[in-house]
Amino acid sequence: MDKEEGTWNIEVVGEAIPEEDRTRIEKLPICQREGPDRVIWPYNKDGSYSVRSGYLSMKGSRHVRDGNRASSSHIVSKSTWKQIWKIQAPSKIKNFLWKACQNALATYQNLWKRRCCTTPTCQLCLHQEESVEHLLLCCDWVQKVWFGSSLAYHVDRQSITSFDFWLVGIFEMSSIKALDKMIMQTRVAFICWHIWKARNAATLEKKHLNAEQVIFLAERAASEYMEIKAFKEKGCLEILLFLF
């Protein structure tokens, strides 16, 4: 602090503190009166600390913190898991979708909240925070994957509230026949999985993103999985017919 000018001398600390903290410091008013500094406890009128005021302030902050947690929490219904488990896809992909519904993926937003990285921003578009919804649905390159796939799905960013609501909405589309719905669900699951794999390869291994390649790999894997499953089911049926 420059006492003669009555201003904060932030340049002294340089980049030792985050930009956000520097901005907060600069907004603090500086007392223009001469005299030594003293510590003031803000929860008592006379500025002195007491055990009672300390207890009440701690109790109040805990109440606010718990209230915020309750209002921002999101509970995924059991029916969502049942729908995910019915998908014709490998168990690892079903588990991945369940983690995505629970917001349990290592997105930059989640890592930043846990102080495991310095920014919540998506490292692929550098425009938005990387939430689960952004990672799997809303990022610019991801939208190209969805629209360029055989689903030709246009992601409406404004209508997406949470990944699990979106997933259930897609799975419960009444205008699709049962067989077509099963195929669609499998393709959705594999596309989400391959978007996740491509994102990890791009951010962790610095590999080039290619939406067309992701579409090709996801749809080929989905088709192969459905073909193998149908072949196995047909083989089991033939064996049963032979035995009986």
Structural descriptors:
disordered C terminus; elongated; mainly alpha; 2 domains; single chain; 10 helices; 244 residues; 0% strand
Question: If you had to describe this structure to a student in words, what would you say it looks like?
Answer:
The protein has 244 residues and is mainly α. It folds into two domains: 10-72, no CATH class; 78-243, no CATH class. The protein contains ten helices and no strands. Helix 9 packs across helix 10 (211-243). The model is unreliable at 62-72 and 239-244 (pLDDT under 50).
SSE blueprint and pairings:
Elements: H1 19-27, H2 51-72, H3 78-85, H4 91-101, H5 108-113, H6 132-138, H7 140-148, H8 163-171, H9 178-204, H10 211-243
Helix pairs in contact: 3-4, 4-9, 6-7, 7-10, 9-10
Structural class, by secondary structure, is mainly alpha
Shape summary: elongated
* Mean of pLDDT: 82
Integer tally of domains: 2
Query: How many E strands?
Result: 0
Task: Compose a concise summary of this entry.
With 244 residues, the protein is mainly alpha-helical.
